[in-house]
Fold these 2 entries.
Entry 1:
Amino acid sequence: MNPALAERETAGAAGVMENVYLPKAAVLDRVVDEIHEVKTFYWHFEDAAEQAAFRRFRPGQFAQVSLFGVGEFPTSLPPSPTEEETFFTVRQVGSCTAALHGLKAGDKFAVRGPYGNGFPMEEYRGKNLVFVAGGIGLIPLRSAIVYAMAKRGEYGRIQIFHGAKTPSELMYVPNLREWERTPGVECHLTVDRASRDRAGGEEWTGNVGVVGSLFKKPGVTVPVENTIAFVCGPPIMFRFVIKDLLGMGFEERNIVSTLERYMKCGVGKCGHCCIGVAYVCVDGPVFTYEQIKNLGEDI
Ligand SMILES: Cc1cc2nc3c(=O)[nH]c(=O)nc-3n(C[C@H](O)[C@H](O)[C@H](O)COP(=O)(O)OP(=O)(O)OC[C@H]3O[C@@H](n4cnc5c(N)ncnc54)[C@H](O)[C@@H]3O)c2cc1C
Ligand code: FES
């Protein structure tokens, strides 16, 4: 069980048991367009105590978002706990995500969490961190990237490899620009097609090719010893990147990713998110590639 949840249940045992299914009221502060059909929603809990409790989330955890009269869905937490603002980045795919996309500043919704195991960033102290993200796979990795950069002295080399179909589909562009300029951080970008498909977009002069092509770029060396590789992205990208990393000599237990499953309760009670013996909502969503393979998960 994740520590925040355990703490709430323990606190409840001393007095009135808290209902873990109860979403808490939240207010939307502002919305920022990221890429086509993907927006970032900045928000806060109405209750300051809830906000403070929630802000103890860890990189890689998720939350359940409720839209009144529509439903509830799980979403990653892209901010690092070292940042002040709380936000989600969500692609519109169906009824709940469309309802969230339809909200404007000042509108209310509800949130419960944080849930899940998160990345064990303490265990990774002293190691090199290699982040490989395809498209919106950067959403669940952003928190760990910003966290590691905020605690720069605790980690070895930090490398970020991000690929998108076109330049206008690169995620978190202001962050990418900042990471490219940050001393001690290597940020490499690529696109499948250099087409300038957003009016007024800058001409793309960077790498063209799949994200794995960045590993072979002149001047790029990926450390394998004492390194953790974080990989998130669409299944096809995941398969190719895993092949590249294993080919370089990475051990399966040193490659981590996040899994997505249909969820209902989010707290290990309903079984909706079950893969083999694992509940993605409590045992994950972060798993090593070794665990993913042992679960028989075909990504
Ligand atoms: C731990 C976790 C973290 C997530 N983080 C994010 C995030 O940061 N940003 C984001 O945009 N989305 C994220 N998702 C996916 C998000 O939860 C779904 O897109 C959402 O539930 C869709 O709800 P809906 O009501 O809008 O769509 P629905 O009406 O439920 O479905 C619309 C379409 O999307 C498909 N779909 C719905 N949920 C999933 C799913 N979990 N996996 C695969 N296909 C699905 C359906 O099959 C259908 O085709 C995450 C999911 C999990 C489990
Ligand atoms: S979502 Fe209910 S057990 Fe995981």
Entry 2:
Amino acid sequence: MLARSHSSKIGEGIVAFPVLILGVFTLANEEHDKDWTRRQFIVRTGAVAAASAAAPFVRMTEASPWKGISNSPNEKLVLGLIGCGGMGAANMRNLMNFPDVSVAAICDVDDNRMTGDYNDVEKKYGRKPDVYKDYRKMLERKDIDAVIVGTPDHWHALNLIHAVEAGKDAYCEKPVSHDIHEAVTMAAAVKHHQKIVQCGTWQRSTKEFTDSIEYIRAGKLGKITLCRAWINDSFRAGRVKPSDPPKGLDYDMWVGPAGWLPYQTNRCHWNWRWFLNFGGGLSTDWGVHMMDIALLGMSKDNDLVMPTAVSSFGGNLAISDDDRTAPDVMECIYNFKDPNFTMHWAIGQDHPGKEGHGTEFVSADGRTLRVWRGGWKILDPGGKELEKEEAPNPPNHWRNWVDCVKTRTQPRANFASVAQTTIVCHLSNVALQAGEMVKWDNAKLDLMGRAGKNTNAYKRAYRKGYTLPDYKPTA
Ligand SMILES: NC(=O)c1ccc[n+]([C@@H]2O[C@H](COP(=O)([O-])OP(=O)(O)OC[C@H]3O[C@@H](n4cnc5c(N)ncnc54)[C@H](O)[C@@H]3O)[C@@H](O)[C@H]2O)c1
């Protein structure tokens, strides 16, 4: 059981928080890719193109594509937002651009963070959204069809599992979980309840990454022997003493299932990602984007190739006199058997002449395909740029989710697939925390043997009063 439960209306005296809207999340491309959406697949954790199991909705006309999906009398997908921070807000705004989407309610444990979203919803629809501090109260509403999970990573598992148990589809931010055990459990829950969940790995729906993946999948770079993915890191959280949480923030609920730590400004909103108690550092924050592309390129479809063995080295080596606990240097090597290749993941490196983040595919003959946010290129072994070939345009990522909710098909970043990427990312932290090589048993969806099983990235302890529901993967 969670500790508290109440809903509240936003009132006077609320401080507006500057909501971050990233330019990259604009709705640019409405065209739909034929290949990817057709290439649906099944994995044990539930990437099933399913008919809605729980479809008690009756108000639709026989001809409506929303029949059995939406409760809305005006045939809109009615949303609730859980977590009104930077990315939750950006997702909500993107979805509000669609005429067949409406937002009924917003929820955050911090009153101070809801003002921007509240005002936006009122401006867009000419009515105020309902406001909740406890997401479980919002989930009780029958008129809400789906939710956006935009909370910090340590809350995703409970938010999402409770949402699908309440019959909601979801747009869930990445990484899908705080640890491996949660990712496996969540995927089983999504499959069990047959819900359509798009994850926040929006790079899957952008041109440069789609072009690169299709080029590799078509075998145009030849046999790939090595993938590289990286992110530069120089972020300092600083040293800060614990203090009283600000008025309006239910800090006990913000910590939720994570281990208890007193409030500090440098490890709460947005900054939580630098603390392993709440997130996985850059291995999950950016690894889930950049390694995702490598894994997709090396896989036939969204059912991803998974590594067999993983070793990591590094730690908090570069940034001293700082509270952050997430590694600032990491060199991680993954071994894959089928197909046979190696993947290298790096944090905190300088990559002279390269973007601060990126993914590379290296072929047996020395050609390299490099892709980053904003471009891609193919280089011969001497560094000369080679001609590229484009794939069909991908759909808009958020539109793709809405369409898949309607058709009960799997979206481009379907939950089971992004859970696989998330597990790969967690494995880098597991190996680092274990201080030894760890082995992944993909048949059992578990680590092989004892190595890594006592790490926080494999399975953290839930704080007293919080329990992860028990769902097991099924064949
Ligand atoms: N897809 C992307 O490119 C991308 C970019 C940034 C962040 N993200 C992801 O989005 C998620 C949120 O990140 P952020 O940077 O927006 O964090 P943030 O800290 O800015 O926002 C999270 C919000 O959730 C609220 N919250 C915490 N617990 C809650 C609960 N139990 N119920 C309701 N609200 C709760 C917080 O008060 C805060 O307002 C993370 O998982 C992050 O990895 C994805």
